[in-house]
């Protein structure tokens, strides 16, 4: 299967159909990776009747070529370095540290902007559906997985609309289950597999989280501790 998705919302609905076994489970939560993963995760949570929250991760881009990930950081001080990028390019530790400091500041800004005082969700003993809009190198998802594992979830299920086959395989070895809706070869880039891959804004993320929170309140579900 190598068809393109209309947009992130459409991709989320496709993923939801592949995750139907998790519908209405009281031990399961959907976590989207901001920003682009949140519209996908919202549709998954909506279709499956599950609570939605976010898990913050920041890519460490190569200076001058920021789209190329040399690693990533996540809430909780977890850092993953992509040796396949750092080694061949000869990137030294001080350079990585400088980028990490800048991205840590942005991570903290987003944490404050998106949560608006809400606590982080409690994932201990729960199944986490970890959702993004696609995987390129997989560095961002890998650091999210490692950071989440420190919180002792029962299971981690990674779900993405598209990724390169080898990345799906590599990430799959780190989690209990992985769902890649399409794994085209050659892959090139995540955005090529969407008709509309326009930027997701901070306002978009806040609005989707607000809608999810309102829905949870209306159904009597606490998204942080369901």
What's the N-to-C terminus distance? 35 Å
Strand order, biggest sheet? Answer: 2-1-6-7-8
Tell me the series of helices and strands, N- to C-terminal. Answer: HEHEEEEHHEHEHEH
Count of helical regions: 7
Q: β content, as a range?
A: 15-25%
The CATH topology name reads Rossmann fold
Report the sheet with the most strands, covering strand number, pairing sense and barrel closure.
5 strands, parallel
* Secondary-structure-derived class: alpha/beta
Overall mean pLDDT stands at: 91
Low-confidence stretches: none
Give the number of domains.
1
Task: Output the radius of gyration.
Answer: 17 Å
Classified by CATH, the class is Alpha Beta
The CATH architecture can be named as 3-Layer(aba) Sandwich
Number of strands: 8
Roughly how much helix do the residues carry, as a percent range?
Answer: 25-40%
Task: List the keywords.
alpha/beta, globular, Rossmann fold, 3-stranded antiparallel sheet, 21% strand, 226 residues, 5-stranded parallel sheet, 39% helix
Explain what you see.
The protein is α/β, with parallel strands linked by helices. It has a single domain, classed as Rossmann fold. The chain has 7 helices and 8 strands. The protein has helices at residues 8-18, 37-48, 83-89, 93-115, 139-149, 165-172, 202-218; strands spanning 28-32, 52-54, 57-62, 65-74, 78-81, 127-131, 155-162, 177-182. α1 crosses α2 and α4 packs across α7 (202-218). The chain is globular, with a radius of gyration of 17 Å.
């Amino acid at each position: 299967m190598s068809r393109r998705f209309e947009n992130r919302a459409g991709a989320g609905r496709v993923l939801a159909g592949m995750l139907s076994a998790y519908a209405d489970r009281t031990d399961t939560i959907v976590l989207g990776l901001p920003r682009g993963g949140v519209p996908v995760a919202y549709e998954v949570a909506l279709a499956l009747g599950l609570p939605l929250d976010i898990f913050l991760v920041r890519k460490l881009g190569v200076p001058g070529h920021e789209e190329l990930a040399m690693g990533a950081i996540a809430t909780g001080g977890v850092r993953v370095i992509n040796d396949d990028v750092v080694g061949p390019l000869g990137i030294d530790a001080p350079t990585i540290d400088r980028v990490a400091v800048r991205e840590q500041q942005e991570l903290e800004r987003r944490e404050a902007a998106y949560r608006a005082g809400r606590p982080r969700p409690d994932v201990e003993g729960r199944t986490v559906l970890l959702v993004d809009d696609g995987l390129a190198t997989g560095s961002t998802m890998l650091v999210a997985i490692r950071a989440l594992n420190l919180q002792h979830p029962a299971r981690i299920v990674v779900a993405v609309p598209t990724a390169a086959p080898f990345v799906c395989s590599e990430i799959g070895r780190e989690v209990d289950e992985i769902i890649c809706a399409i794994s085209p070869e050659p892959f090139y880039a995540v955005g090529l597999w969407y008709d509309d891959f326009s930027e997701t804004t901070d306002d978009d993320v806040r609005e989707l989280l607000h809608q999810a929170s309102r829905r949870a309140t209306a159904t009597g579900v606490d998204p942080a501790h369901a």
